[in-house]
Amino acid sequence: MCKQFHESLLNLIKLISRILATGLEQCPIRPVIKRFQQGPIQMTQSHPLAPRATPGWLFIALLVSGLTAGCQAPTVVAPAPPLVQAYTGPTLPIAQSDRGVLIFLPSTALFESGKSTLNVQESEAYIQRVAQLISSKTEKNVVLEGHTDNVGSEALNLELSESRARSVRDALIARGVDGKRLTTIGYSLNRPVASNATDEGRKLNRRVEVVILEEKIENITKGEAPNAFESAWERLKIMMESGLVKAVGAK
Fold first, then answer.
1. All residues at 6 or more sequence positions from 69 whose CB lies less than 8 Å from its CB, including other chains
2. Hey, CA dihedral for 6, 7, 8, 9, is it positive or negative?
3. Quick one: which of 62, 77, 144, 169 could link to 165 by a disulfide (CB 3.0–4.6 Å)?
4. Whether residues 104 and 60 fall in one domain
């Protein structure tokens, strides 16, 4: 009996060494171990485990079963996805052009009628949002373009469009944007996006365009909420189809 125990102990040492080297999957008595972990069995000569179930091997199987019971790989629980906060800022009309990315800021939300001073309350969300995008999403230079409708003389509208573009520039600089990246220009009434024949068309034409030069739209919109942007051209198309605005040149 002592000899059998001694042999079993030596076999146990060899087996544990093998398990440490190759893992339990390669263990020659793994079926025995797994069966013992499931509960007691009635061993008969016809049982499929019987050929290996000698006293020495049974002792080893029981011992290894106990040793490995606490060594099973823990269940990995995937961390919960981070909570995505709902976007509550303004939805910015955006488009890709040959020059870069265009973001349209409606003058009706930025300025009072006929004035170039920013409406503090109405414009804050737009200015803050654009400043955040320029600072965090791109290193490209930016042109701020002022546009007007056709009400009033071209000269007055030119002055107004230039002043409004400068007002947006100053506001962006105040919110941390490098002024060296920003240039301004006014186009007066010469670049409408819709006919001035309707009120809605004139509203669209009174705007400041943020042109992020040589940038790709996917770099700006990546990781943003679905309601953070809308296609500027798709929006214009829908407004035209609904009759709210007319194409440029229409009466």
1. 37
2. positive
3. 144
4. no
